[in-house]
Structure formats: C-alpha cells, structure tokens
C-alpha cells in the first residue's frame, strides 16, 4: 500500500447525502416502476433498516479512508484516513459527524472499538498505536515501541482489554491499553499486515508478506500451526462471531484476490483446515495496482462475509454457499474496508474515494 507521510489535515467540510427519497411514516422506499397513458405506477418497497434512506453517503475526510468501524451498539461509526484524522459519526438520522480526533503524525491504517464504546484504538504509519477517549477526543495513551509502520490492531474480547498490533518491523506486540510500552512481543521474519484474537483469546492469528497465516498459542507464545494456501500478502483476518451456529471460522483476505474461510476448531478432520475459497464473479480481480491492505469481515450472524474490490464494488457472499449475494456499486475508487452493522442488515464501506457508504440489504 501507499505509505507516504500524510499531508496536514485540510479541515474539509462534512457532507452527508442520502439516496433515494423515502416515506418516513411507513418506512418504505417509494419508486417509479413503470408508466402508461401519461401516468406512473408507484410501488412501495419495504425497508429493512432504520437508516434515514436505503443508502447514506458520508464525506468529510480529505484523504483516502483506510478503516471504518461500527461501535458494538451499532449506533456510532469511526473512520480513519490518510489525512491523519479519525471522524466520529452517528449511524442513524442524518448520520451527523459529532467528533474529530487528531494526534497521529501519519496515516491511520486500522481501528478498533472498546466493548463499552467509550474508547477507540488506532494503528498508524507513524509507528505508534493510540488509545483515545471518545467523549473528549483526547489521547489517553500513546503506545510506542514499533520501529516501522503499524498496519493492524485488534482487541482481546474478554476480560481486560489487551491490544495486539502487527507492524512492518516484523514484530507482533501485545499491549495493556493502560501502559505505554508493550507487555510482550513475538518476532516474524517478514512484515505483519493483519492480526486477530480468537474469541477466547487463547490463540492469535497473524498474516503478512510471507503469504502464510500463523496461529499462535497465547500461553506459550509459540506457533501452534500455520494455514497455507494464499499466494500473496494477507491483508485482513477476521474471526466469525460467537453467535454463529457453526464451529469457529477464520476469514482471510489476500492480494491474490481471494478470500478463504478456515476451520479453526481445536479438532478438525481437514488436514488443511480450508473450508472454502471465495472469489469475485466473472473472474474479476479484487485487488488491483493500489496494493492497499483491503479488509473483509463477517456479518453479525456469521451467515455472510463482505469485502471490497479495487473496482469500487462491495461484494457480499453467503458464508456457507460461497455464492455472491450482492455486488454493490457506488464508489469511484478502491474499497478498503467493508463492515456489517451488529444490529441490522446494513453494510458499510470505506474507500480511496474519501467516501463512506451505508447501504441496507435484505
């Protein structure tokens, strides 16, 4: 990805647009579906979310957006950009921007919310991580120790909120969010571009430029096993939600333009642990010349996965069928992040075109 130093924030204005018009009283979209004899046939289509319109476009960043995240309640959104800022948005009504967080000295590449939605964690090309108080917008702690770009951050899902980071310096570091320095680090031979804690926190998954996913035993800090099959850099790792009815799965995304779903249960009959491989329709390449660290994710029920393409399309697959269920246009640049609302059938995408789109699906 392009990791040049960021320019100073431009202070660009914030704009929210919504398409198309809706009937607020009936929560239905009104559309013209045909006409005849000088008249038009009007049809009401049932809405599936509480969004003010089926598609909401949020703009305000002055640089490409690398990450966007719903908070655990689904009521708020945080987005991170090349412009060195984190913008805070409301998900509903006018999707108003209610906060701007600044302090990093280079592009912000990844984000994570705390479980209580009061804190944000960021990973930056300035070699640091940040812990931020959402209400005040102030940095609570600046985490230092990496010697190169920090590409990814994830949060321990249970107990004390520990952080894990992956960096171009080849180190995976563990952090207490209250402390400045890492509590432990594990060395890799190649830059680390993606990290994810297991649901129980007993395992850690990392991916990088060696095309291999490493599974670390957190008790011994050693590699338990590896997952192999990707043929290019791993750009994203995501654990299936605990609400999913299937055994725990790992979703990986790579610059080889495939997503792969892996069985990460303690015992499995598959020697490779590969469940299925997902690709874009008609042989389209998901990754392009940008070489951005494009991110993929699971829906809240674990039945779908989503990722964006370098062609500006947001793709949603059925996790079990492997079929493309949606191919959603709207962006004019590479889609760097795709996330699902934790509470409603809403897909959020963030792009190089400096725009966030919220769209409801069925």
Tell me, rounded to a whole number, the average pLDDT. Answer: 89
Number of strands: 32
- SS element count, helices: 0
Rg is 20 Å
Percent in helix: under 10%
Q: Enumerate the spans where pLDDT stays under 50 for 5 or more consecutive residues.
A: 1-15, 19-26, 29-36
Distance between the termini: 33 Å
Content-based structural category: mainly beta
Could you give a short account of the major beta sheet?
5 strands, antiparallel
Percentage beta strand: over 45%
Oligomer status: single chain
- Described by the principal axes of the CA atoms, the overall outline is globular
Strand order of the largest sheet: 1-5-32-31-30
Provide an overview of this structure.
Helix content is 0%, strand content 49%. The chain has strands at 15-19, 22-23, 28-36, 39-46, 55-59, 65-70, 76-81, 85-90, 97-102, 108-113, 119-124, 129-133, 139-143, 150-155, 162-167, 171-176, 184-187, 192-197, 203-208, 213-217, 222-227, 234-239, 249-254, 259-263, 274-278, 296-298, 304-308, 314-318, 324-328, 335-340, 346-351, 355-360. A 5-stranded antiparallel β-sheet has the order 1-5-32-31-30, with no helix packed on it. A 4-stranded antiparallel β-sheet has the order 6-7-8-9, with no helix packed on it.
């Amino acid at each position: 990805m392009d990791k040049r130093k960021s320019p100073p924030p431009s202070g660009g204005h914030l704009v929210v647009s919504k398409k198309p018009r809706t009937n607020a009283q009936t929560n239905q979209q009104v559309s013209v579906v045909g006409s005849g004899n000088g008249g038009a046939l009007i049809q009401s289509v049932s809405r599936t979310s509480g969004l003010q319109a089926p598609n909401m476009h949020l703009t305000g960043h002055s640089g490409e957006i690398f990450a966007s995240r719903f908070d655990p309640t689904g009521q708020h959104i945080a987005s991170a950009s090349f412009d060195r800022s984190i913008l805070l948005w409301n998900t509903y009504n006018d999707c108003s921007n209610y906060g701007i967080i600044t302090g990093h000295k280079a592009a912000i590449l990844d984000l994570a919310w705390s479980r209580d939605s009061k804190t944000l964690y960021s990973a930056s090309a300035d070699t640091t991580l940040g812990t931020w108080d959402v209400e005040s917008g102030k940095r609570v702690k600046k985490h230092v120790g990496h010697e190169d770009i920090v590409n990814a951050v994830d949060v321990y899902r249970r107990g004390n909120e520990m952080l894990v980071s992956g960096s171009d310096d080849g180190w995976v570091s563990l952090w207490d969010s209250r402390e400045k320095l890492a509590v432990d680090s594990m060395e890799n031979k190649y830059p680390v571009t993606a990290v994810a804690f297991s649901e129980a926190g007993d395992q850690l998954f990392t991916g990088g430029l060696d095309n291999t996913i490493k599974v670390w035993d957190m008790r011994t800090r050693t590699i338990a096993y590896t997952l192999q099959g990707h043929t290019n850099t791993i750009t994203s790792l995501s654990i299936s939600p605990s609400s999913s009815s299937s055994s725990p799965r790992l979703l990986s995304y790579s610059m080889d333009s495939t997503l792969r779903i892996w069985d990460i249960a303690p015992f499995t009959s598959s020697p490779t642990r590969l469940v299925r491989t997902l690709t874009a329709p008609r042989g389209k390449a998901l990754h392009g010349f940008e070489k951005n660290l494009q991110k993929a994710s699971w829906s809240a029920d674990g039945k779908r996965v989503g990722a964006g393409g370098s062609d500006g399309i947001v793709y949603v697959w059925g996790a079990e069928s492997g079929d493309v269920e949606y191919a959603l246009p709207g962006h004019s640049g590479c889609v760097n992040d795709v996330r699902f609302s934790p509470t409603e059938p809403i897909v959020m995408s963030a792009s190089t075109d400096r725009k966030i789109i919220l769209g409801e699906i069925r």
